[in-house]
Every structure is written in structure tokens, then in C-alpha cells.
Design goal:
The protein has 224 residues and is an alpha/beta fold. 39% of the residues lie in helices and 17% in strands. The strands form 2 sheets. A 7-stranded parallel sheet has the order 3-2-1-4-5-6-9, with helices on both faces.
């Protein structure tokens, strides 16, 4: 049975990696990219919904029905941001869409790109980790049939993908060799964009007992 999926953050490094894997996968027959800007890709499976206000999806709610999963890859670095601004993008935007989708179809799979070091207690000193933790906790408690929190840590971009975050791309330009060396020495400690995409796709079809997925779990799920 083929699936229809929604992807956010498809212009970013992780989101684009997930998008490319979904477009190539035979089990997916439609991909709706929900974003503030077009992705610049042409494909018969691809639909785009440009939506500027991620705090309110009521006006496009009818266009979000009938999908089997949402792969939420929208995110931003906390560097230089005040807590209120980071929370708006990281928590408010995510839960606004998640609640809308849960109202439409609670039986769908909702996958969220989080990060290693996320604070599930919501009480630690790191601002970004607390907010990510609250986001994860509230998504898991929302009531979706399935919800998975992806904490990939270091990521190797494949298929010519670039990071839109300048500091991250600088690292990839000059230190990707080091990331690849770490993966060679400890294969389960680093994931690539293809593995994240395949793991998200497989999560719709394969049972998995963990709800918070670290690199080892992501790699395992990508091969199921």
C-alpha cells in the first residue's frame, strides 16, 4: 500500500535529504512539501503548499487531510536567538501544525527532527535543550497513533545537499573528513541524510518500540 506524506523544512539539509528519499521511494506516491518558500524541484509525486504563517494552519487545514505521515524537519540553530524567539520557531510552529494534523487524522505517523542533548526533563540549564525537550514531550503526549523523535547528532549530507546554516556548512566544507572518520571508527554514532530519510519512511511500515531514536536506532530503522 502506497503512502502520502507531508514534509516541512524541505529547503534545509535534513528536510531535503528526507524529501529526495521520499520522491525516490516506491512506497510513496505523493509528497506534500509545506513551507514558506518553494523547494525548486520538479517531480510528478511532488505537491507544494506555500504557507507563510506557521503559527496558524486553519486556512489550509482542508489541504492537509488524507496524509499518512508528517516528517517535521523544520528547525533553526539557537545561536544568537533569545529564548522567546527560539521557542516560537521550535515549539510553537511545531505544535501548531501537529495539533492541526491530529485533529484531522490522529492515526497518522508524526516524526520530528530533534537533536542529541535534548533535555526531556525540561529543567536543564541549556535553553535550546529545554525547549526541544518540551517539544518532544508534548508531541509524544498529543495522541498520534505513532510519533517518533529523531535525535541524529552528527549528520553527513549526501546527494550534493548543502546546509543553509553558514556555520554548519563551514564545518562540512573543512571538517567533513573528521565526521567521516568518526563514522568509520564508530559506525553507529553518525548518520547520513539518506539514513534519516529511509528511517522516516520505514517508521510508517515497521513497528519500533522506541519513541526517541538516537543514531543507532535511526541506522537500524533505515535498514528494516
Amino acid at each position: 500500500m502506497t503512502k502520502r506524506v507531508i514534509i516541512t523544512g524541505a529547503t534545509g539539509m535534513v528536510g531535503k535529504g528526507v524529501l529526495l528519499e521520499c520522491l525516490d521511494h516506491e512506497a510513496i506516491n505523493e509528497v506534500l512539501v509545506l513551507g514558506r518558500n518553494p523547494v525548486g524541484i520538479s517531480n510528478s509525486k511532488l505537491k507544494e503548499l506555500v504557507h507563510k504563517d506557521f503559527s496558524n494552519f486553519s486556512g489550509v487545514k482542508n489541504q492537509l487531510s488524507g496524509y499518512d505521515a508528517c516528517f517535521f524537519c523544520l528547525g533553526i540553530s539557537a545561536a544568537g536567538l533569545k529564548e522567546e524567539e527560539y521557542k516560537k520557531i521550535t515549539y510553537d510552529f511545531t505544535l501548531s501544525l501537529a495539533r492541526t494534523l491530529h485533529d484531522i487524522n490522529p492515526a497518522m505517523t508524526f516524526n520530528y527532527i530533534s537533536g542529541q542533548g535534548t533535555d526531556s526533563t525540561e529543567k536543564g540549564r541549556m535553553m535550546w535543550a529545554r525547549i526541544k525537550g518540551k517539544t518532544e514531550n508534548d508531541l509524544l503526549n498529543l495522541g498520534f497513533k505513532q510519533a517518533f523523535m529523531f535525535r541524529p547528532g552528527m549528520i553527513i549530507p549526501l546527494r550534493g545537499i548543502k546546509s543553509r546554516t553558514k556555520s554548519y556548512q563551514f564545518m562540512y566544507d573543512y571538517f567533513l573528513w573528521l565526521v567521516k572518520l568518526i563514522k568509520a571508527l564508530a559506525p553507529n554514532s553518525v548518520v547520513n541524510t539518506t539514513q534519516i530519510g529511509l528511517a522516516m519512511i520505514n517508521s510508517m511500515f515497521k513497528a519500533h518500540d522506541k519513541k526517541i531514536l538516537v543514531p543507532k536506532d535511526i541506522i537500524h530503522l533505515s535498514h528494516l
